[in-house]
Write a structure and sequence with these properties.
The complex is a heterodimer of chains A (240) and B (320).
Chain A: H1 2-17, H2 19-40, H3 50-68, H4 73-78, H5 81-85, H6 91-110, H7 114-123, H8 130-155, H9 161-179, H10 191-196, H11 200-207, H12 213-239
Chain B: E1 2-11, E2 14-24, E3 29-33, H1 40-47, E4 55-60, E5 63-64, H2 69-74, E6 76-79, H3 91-101, H4 106-119, H5 135-147, E7 153-157, H6 165-178, E8 183-188, H7 191-197, E9 200-205, E10 208-213, H8 215-221, E11 228-233, H9 238-243, E12 248-256, E13 261-268, H10 276-285, E14 290-295, H11 300-309
Helix pairs in contact in B: 3-4, 3-5, 4-5, 5-6
Chain lengths: 240, 320
């Protein structure tokens, strides 16, 4: 556990020691700030953060792969994977530590947007309903968890960060498209599986303020599955 | 003690290491020597637990590096080739991070980091980012990170690769200092370095162990001809006198030392390794004045070339 936290702390600190981390946060806040000013701070509309959450979910498509692309790829490229994998910390602790570090970074990236909620509550009468806001943030964190776990796994397969970025972006888009547009066009036998794996209906539920335990279990278990795949990928490198 | 027991490693159809065995006793400095592609790095990666052997095992004391991996790795300090590092981290942070990874307790960490930095003379760059340091300093940072948890076994892969001559001298002196209180295995393809730093040499080529012993032992075991050089008076003519000595295959005038003295190179017959007494007696008997008589021992470099070209030229000894 100590090893996992050590790796998570280093990973988190590394995002703030390189321009990529600051650029990702700045771009995300700039774009969501724009959405908040233009679409939410509008006297003629209801006091709701819904547009912010739906735009944020889409912004995660490029932002999360940018965060995850270096998790393992950079270690492979620079050779630091060798001292890391020869430390007494196991492969599982390394994968989980890196995942947690990236997750903390994502949460810190989302945290400043709570100011939007404060401003909206201050200027709105009546104040916006807290339920959809809590559910909206939960959906962003859960979606980010899943996307990050996919990115973690893909970065464990290549030493090329660009490839890791594009691979993650492609994998997420494929998941989104296959479970929405593709589901009706694919063989009937596959449809139940694709419907079950669909992300958009779950996010839509969160947007309505519904926090369904089955959705939480879905995102957490899918994320755990990709982290597990990452551990397998690390171990298979030793044997290849 | 580090014990490598018949390890094999293949990558697809390439058999990188084939049944390599050797031991390194506590306090010994052993050089793993071989040309590029000999299997040195693969062997070292198996020793450090980065790669599991396909067959055979590596033991650190009583611990099997594959089976008791975490405990065994905690006893090893490892500096991979090119000293990989996190460029964005400051020197002190990087070494402290390695200490934390190796389970150095928080209360002891500051002291451990300080000691490792002192040992590697990093005080002046403690607050600088590793990425901006010179290659020599990066190497020192890697060494400090490798010793910060007080490992009993230190493994260095080509630690002086890419350094300039001054940095090589500094690194060599640091390695000697670090070897004082631990077992040290280091790989190199630079023969002079191995000769200067190591108590023992393990030579591998083509993935196989070719020789194991002290540099002196290996040279003694070699089948290379050990020429004798004699510097003697010009008169009487030394060549017929020396050629008559039993065991001399040939005697050639090598150079004129000056007007009165000449240097003769004598090639012994197979099986005659030391002809100094016989040559001295023959010269004395013939009234030939001799002012120098020596054996031209083959260098480790010639031995190395011989091993690469002729496997089996030197017997594999249990030099542990």
């Amino acid at each position: 556990m100590k090893g996992t936290l050590t790796i998570a702390q280093r990973e988190l600190a590394s995002f703030f020691a390189i321009p990529l981390g600051w650029v990702a946060i700045a771009l995300y806040l700039f774009l969501t700030g724009g959405v908040f000013s233009l679409m939410i701070l509008n006297p003629s509309t209801a006091a709701t953060m819904r547009p912010f959450f739906s735009v944020s979910a889409w912004l995660m498509l490029p932002v999360i792969p940018a965060i995850s692309m270096r998790l393992f790829s950079e270690e492979f490229r620079s050779g630091t994977i060798e001292p890391l994998l020869t430390s007494p910390v196991g492969d599982a602790a390394i994968a989980v530590g890196k995942y947690l570090g990236a997750l903390w970074f994502m949460v810190l990236m989302l945290a400043p947007t709570l100011a939007h909620v404060g401003v909206l509550a201050w200027v709105s009468t009546p104040a916006p309903d807290a339920g959809p806001i809590v559910a909206g943030y939960a959906s962003l964190v859960l979606l980010g968890m899943l996307y990050l776990s996919i990115g973690l796994f893909i970065s464990s397969l290549t030493s090329n960060q660009t490839l890791a970025f594009l691979g993650t972006l492609f994998a997420i888009l494929l998941l989104l498209l296959a479970t929405t547009l593709g589901a009706d066009r694919l063989p009937e036998a596959m449809r139940p599986l694709l419907y079950a794996a669909a992300l958009t209906p779950r996010i839509a539920d969160f947007a309505k303020g519904v926090i369904d335990t089955s959705h939480i279990v879905f995102f957490v278990s899918c994320s755990a599955w990709f982290v597990l795949l990452t551990i397998v990928a690390l171990q298979s490198r030793r044997w290849s | 003690m580090l014990s490598v027991q018949g390890v094999h490693k293949s990558f697809g159809s390439i058999r990188a290491v084939r049944g390599v065995s050797f031991e390194v006793r506590p306090g010994q400095v052993v050089g793993l020597l071989g040309p590029n592609g000999a299997g040195k790095t693969t062997t070292i990666r198996m020793v450090t637990g980065f790669l599991p052997p396909d067959d055979g095992r590596v033991m650190i004391g009583e611990l099997d590096v594959s089976r008791d991996s975490a405990q065994a790795r905690a006893k090893i300090g490892y500096l991979p080739e090119s000293a990989p590092h996190y460029p964005e981290m400051k020197v002190r942070e990087f070494i402290a991070h390695r200490a934390a990874l190796f389970g150095v307790a928080r209360r002891d960490r500051k002291q451990a980091v300080g000691q490792a930095m002192d040992r590697c003379q990093l005080g002046a760059v403690a607050s600088r980012r590793v990425g901006v340091l010179s290659k020599g300093f990066k190497q020192r940072v890697g060494l400090a990170a490798a010793i910060v948890h007080g490992p009993s076994v230190l493994v260095l892969d080509e630690p002086t690769n890419g350094l300039d001559p001054t940095q090589v001298r500094e690194a060599r002196s640091l390695i000697k200092d670090l070897a004082k209180d631990r077992t040290l295995l280091f790989s190199s393809h630079v023969l002079s370095e191995v000769e200067r730093v190591c108590d023992r040499v393990v030579m591998i080529a083509g993935g196989e162990l070719r020789a194991d012993g002290t540099p002196g032992e290996l040279v003694d075991k070699t089948s290379l001809t050990r020429a004798h050089v004699i510097e003697c008076a010009r008169a009487p003519d030394p060549l017929p006198i020396l050629r008559k000595v039993e065991g001399v295959a040939d005697a050639k005038l090598e150079a004129l030392a000056d007007e009165a003295w000449v240097r003769v190179r004598i090639t012994p017959r197979a099986g005659h390794r030391d002809l100094r007494e016989a040559l001295s007696a023959a010269a004395r008997g013939a009234g030939l004045a001799v002012r120098e008589l020596s054996i031209d021992r083959p260098s480790l470099e010639r031995l190395f070339a011989e091993l690469i070209e002729r496997p089996g030229a030197v017997g594999v000894g249990g030099g542990a």
